[in-house]
Write a structure and sequence with these properties.
CATH superfamily: Alpha/Beta hydrolase fold, catalytic domain
Shape: globular
CATH topology: Rossmann fold
Number of helices: 10
CATH class: Alpha Beta
Number of domains: 1
Distance between the termini: 38 Å
Helix content: 25-40%
């Protein structure tokens, strides 16, 4: 259920579901955090609704600045059909950010959200002050067009073992990885009421089409990006292979790279405390 904009909540678990009209439809979002400061906008992964943002990361960022978490078109409580290209997602998110009245933002994109963040940086550079790219890679990056081929067998494995697919997709199979997966999935269930709508299979598949197209796309000229960028990932990402993060940091003129040990695609969730500290230091610098 979407509610009108009210006062800013301080915790993710209590932040109401809000709606904003932009680009011909209504987009779902949540807003929380400090009343002043450069707003941080969060863009999430393939198949993710608002309830897939890590509460510890959101609350950590929101302690000192306003935070906006957005649903893509056709995902969760947002209207319309999920776009088939990253380009369309980026245009949607730009329209939402402008409809929210945000003139300059810090942008945090995880996985698919990192693809969208890169495209926004290139489309409207004056909108973004700083960016964080986590568990992601550039257009045409190594193995990105095979995200589906890598993921489907592990999704089936999760169904057969009665586990959440993120157990296998986001975390390593080591003891550390399994503990981190259990803790992360428990955090995602902390919000008991007013949860977002589940993602539909149609939206899930349409987003995968966009991811595959991004993986086959001609590389973009990231050398024109002048904003400071923090690139973060686990050192054993099997979904968007870790070398993509290394390559991103090398191609971006003002980038810093952090890789987390014994961590996969969800490295920022496994090391959420360290990531929040790093992100805040980066944004405040």
């Amino acid at each position: 259920m979407l509610t009108p904009v009210g006062s800013i909540d301080r915790q993710w678990i209590n932040a109401p579901n809000l709606g904003i009209h932009a680009a011909g439809t209504t987009f779902a979002y949540r807003r929380l955090g400090a009343p002043t400061g450069v707003p941080v906008v969060l863009l999430n992964h393939w198949g993710a609704t608002l309830d897939n943002f890590d509460p510890r990361i959101v609350d950590g960022l929101a302690a000192s600045r306003p935070v906006y978490a957005l649903d893509y078109r056709g995902v969760g409580a947002s209207g319309g059909d999920a776009p088939l290209t990253v380009d369309e997602m980026a245009r949607d998110m730009i329209a939402v950010i402008r409809a929210l009245g945000l003139e300059q933002i810090d942008l945090v994109g995880f996985s698919l959200g990192g693809f969208v963040t890169q495209d926004i940086l290139l489309k409207v550079p004056d909108l973004v002050r700083k960016a964080i790219l986590a568990g992601t890679g550039p257009a045409g990056g190594e193995g990105i067009d095979r995200v589906g081929a890598v993921s489907w067998p592990l999704i089936v494995k999760a169904l057969l073992t009665l586990r959440d697919p993120k157990t296998y997709l986001f975390f390593t199979s080591t003891a550390n990885g399994r503990r981190a997966a259990t803790a992360f999935l428990a955090r995602l269930k902390e919000r008991k009421t007013d949860r977002d709508k589940s993602v539909s299979m149609a939206a899930f598949r349409r987003q995968l089409t966009a991811i595959k197209a991004w993986g086959k796309q001609t590389p973009q000229d990231l050398g024109v990006v002048r904003q400071p960028v923090l690139v973060a990932n686990g050192d054993h990402d099997i979904m968007v292979p870790t070398p993509n993060s290394v390559g991103l940091a090398a191609r971006l003129p003002a980038a810093e790279l952090v890789l987390y040990d014994d961590a996969g695609h969800g490295g920022i969730f496994q090391y959420h405390d360290a990531f929040v500290g790093k992100a805040l230091a980066f944004l405040d610098a």
